[in-house]
């Protein structure tokens, strides 16, 4: 009977391992994305991405000063 017991324990361990993580990706995304483009309201993670965004999407505009 040890094999049967081992099988049940293995199934329990796998079920615990395969459970979804608590929390949502939306919450994690909101924490990571802190900078917002004032023109198109897209959210970015850091000032470098904001500069790249302005270069590609708003080439005639100047990026805002880094006050954050």
Explain what the structure shows:
With 68 residues, the protein is mainly alpha-helical. The protein has a domain at 33-63. 51% of the residues lie in helices and 6% in strands. The chain is built from three helices and two strands. A two-stranded antiparallel ribbon has the order 1-2. Strand 1 (35-36) and strand 2 form a beta hairpin.
Structure in a nutshell:
Its main location: cytoplasm. InterPro entries: MBS1/2-like (IPR045230), SERF-like_N (IPR007513), ZNF706/At2g23090_sf (IPR026939), Znf_C2H2_type (IPR013087). This protein has 68 residues and is mostly helical.
Observed structural traits:
68 residues, two-stranded antiparallel sheet, 3 helices, 51% helix, C2H2-type domain-containing protein, SERF-like_N, cytoplasm, Znf_C2H2_type
């Amino acid at each position: 009977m040890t094999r049967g017991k081992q099988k049940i324990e293995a199934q329990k361990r796998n079920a615990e391992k395969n459970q979804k993580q608590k929390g949502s990706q939306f919450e994690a995304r909101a924490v990571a994305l802190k900078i917002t483009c004032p023109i198109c309201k897209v959210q970015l993670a850091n000032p470098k991405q904001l500069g790249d965004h302005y270069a590609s999407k708003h080439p005639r505009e100047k990026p805002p000063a880094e006050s954050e």
